[in-house]
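Readers of this paper often ask what the protein records in our data store actually look like. Such a record has a labelled line for the sequence and another for the backbone structure tokens. The tokens are whole numbers drawn from a learned vocabulary of local backbone shapes. We quote a single record here, exactly as it is kept in our systems:
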Amino acid sequence: MAEIINLNRARKTRAKVEDKTRAAANRAAHGRTKDQKQSADKDRDRAARQLDGHKLDD
């Protein structure tokens, strides 16, 4: 027979896990210095320009 669980506790546990993963993602995205953010922006722009330069004309 299946094990009986408390649905409220299961829901709250799942919510805590989701909150922790969201917090970790936010720390990674926002926990950078200004120089790191600018460097990432420059790298992204450089990659976009390079990709656009390799496109063939229609």
